[in-house]
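in:
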């Protein structure tokens, strides 16, 4: 069994890689185009599984290329940097409530509209407050170009068992969302963390 991955950018070939199934493969990209809120450039990727030269399965997805780090600015303060440059973030605290569904958006268009409204209002950041959204919400953040600070939902951290559960769920959340180019920060605790009690 062999795997082949092909990346395209606006229908032009951007890179490809092939190799044995169940091995790590690294897909080189010619002249990478970085993702930013002002230019949310995404690549399409197609991965095929082949047996004896014949395709047996196929999946398509997308990815964005960006780096997030810290940089010391000329004024001496440390700033968040996107693709090696400080970025001024202007955002909102989004609790994800919907008047017609409480925590559930009524439609995919409603998810998209919220992000379009924020962008049109001059924001480039959303802090998703104490909620993990549907994957589709992060997809629209990737496509439309809005940065995300993701909260870990609050938990009972006052016992050892509660803290262990919190850590398990935190790691699962990060694992599930870490590939979204829009997501640049994890907020672990909302408010004060209480003492551990047995």
């Amino acid at each position: 069994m062999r795997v082949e991955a092909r990346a395209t950018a606006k229908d032009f070939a951007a890179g490809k890689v092939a190799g044995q199934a169940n091995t790590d493969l690294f897909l080189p990209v010619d002249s990478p185009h970085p993702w930013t809120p002002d230019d949310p450039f995404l690549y399409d990727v197609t991965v095929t599984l082949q047996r004896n030269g014949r395709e047996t399965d196929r999946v398509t997805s997308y990815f964005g290329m960006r780096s997030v780090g810290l940089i010391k600015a000329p004024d001496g303060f440390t700033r968040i940097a996107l693709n090696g440059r400080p970025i001024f973030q202007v955002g909102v605290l989004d609790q994800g409530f919907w008047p017609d569904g409480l925590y559930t958006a009524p439609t995919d268009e409603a998810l998209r509209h919220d992000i379009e409204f924020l962008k049109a209002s001059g924001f480039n950041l959303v802090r998703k407050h104490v909620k993990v959204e549907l994957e589709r919400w992060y997809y629209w953040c990737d496509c439309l170009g809005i940065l995300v600070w993701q909260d870990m939902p609050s938990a009972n951290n006052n016992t050892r068992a509660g803290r262990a559960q919190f850590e398990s769920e935190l790691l699962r959340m990060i694992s599930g969302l870490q590939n979204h180019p829009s997501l640049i920060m994890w907020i672990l605790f909302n408010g004060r963390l209480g003492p551990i009690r047995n």
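note: The chain is about 20% helix and 35% strand.
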